[in-house]
Specification:
alpha/beta, binds NADP nicotinamide-adenine-dinucleotide phosphate, 239 residues, 7-stranded parallel sheet, Rossmann fold
Length: 239
């Protein structure tokens, strides 16, 4: 039987590229999504045309914290197991101190930390049986502090800390690592100054989805890496 990977937020952008990378390497894909029904169904059609019954979709809002267990039960019902969990889904928005933003706390924490923790917990027994791996998606800029994004930065900082703690707690059965992307897909509203951004990146370019999905796959493949945060940012966080 093929190995099975669950990718959260997998319908588009970096998540979609991770789905395609694992699919190309003979994995069966469980693609979680929330609002991107159209993109998820298009991806399902595309991957099933390459290999029949090779992808299943599950729609779930990671703010629905009471139902994490039933979401994981549904995951295990799809192919009967999970070998790799990739916590890619993330909400991302500014929370400047000048605005009333305490209601944003739950949203940013749920998708970026509470969800990854709960999914790992509920799937751990099964991951253990399959000598599994967990890979979390952080953010290369989080260690530097992020002006106007303090809650998001707390959430990703928490995710990095969680990655290291769970790597210790779940060793030697399950490896837990993270990929921390740099500037990969810029906001489509033109709010970022691309030229200035590129000048801050030692490798001189914005990254792309494949730079991230290949790093995620590498962390899955190398069986002697756990508890690591791999910054894939063209060297930007060195500055
Ligand atoms: N793009 C970059 O340049 C960059 C830079 C640094 C770090 N990262 C990290 O890399 C990962 C992928 O980046 P991305 O830009 O491709 O991510 P994204 O498009 O901003 O978000 C990925 C998916 O997360 C899902 N999501 C958000 N809130 C959710 C919730 N409450 N419940 C369930 N799903 C939810 C959304 O699914 P639906 O669309 O189905 O609602 C969305 O498509 C993220 O963890 C991000 O923080 C990205």
């Amino acid at each position: 039987m093929n190995k099975v990977v669950l990718i959260t937020g997998g319908a588009k952008r970096i998540g979609k590229s991770i789905c395609e990378k694992f699919h190309k390497n003979d994995f069966s894909i469980i693609c979680h999504y929330n609002s991107s029904d159209k993109e998820a169904n298009e991806l399902k059609e595309k991957l099933n045309a390459i290999r029949k019954n090779s992808i299943e979709l599950i729609k779930f809002d990671l703010n629905d914290v009471k139902n994490y267990q039933s979401f994981c039960d549904e995951v295990l019902n799809k192919y009967g197991k999970v070998d790799v969990l990739i916590n890619n889904a993330s909400s991302f928005f500014a929370t400047p101190l000048t605005e009333d933003n305490m209601s944003d706390w739950d949203d940013l924490i749920n998708s970026n930390v509470k969800g990854p923790l709960a999914l790992t917990k509920h799937l751990a027994e099964n991951l253990k049986e399959n000598s599994g791996a967990v890979i979390n998606l952080s953010d290369a800029m989080v260690a530097k502090g992020m002006k106007n994004y303090s809650i998001y930065a707390v959430a990703k900082g928490g995710l990095e800390s969680l990655t290291k703690s769970l790597a210790k707690e779940l060793a030697p059965d399950i490896r837990v690592n993270a990929v921390a992307p740099g500037a990969i897909l810029l906001p489509s509203d033109g709010s970022s100054d691309e030229e200035k951004l590129i000048s801050s990146i030692p490798l001189g370019r914005i990254g792309n989805e494949k730079d991230i999905s290949s790093a995620v796959f590498h962390l899955y493949k190398n069986k002697y890496i756990t508890g690591q945060i791999l910054r894939v940012d063209g060297g930007r966080s060195l500055n």
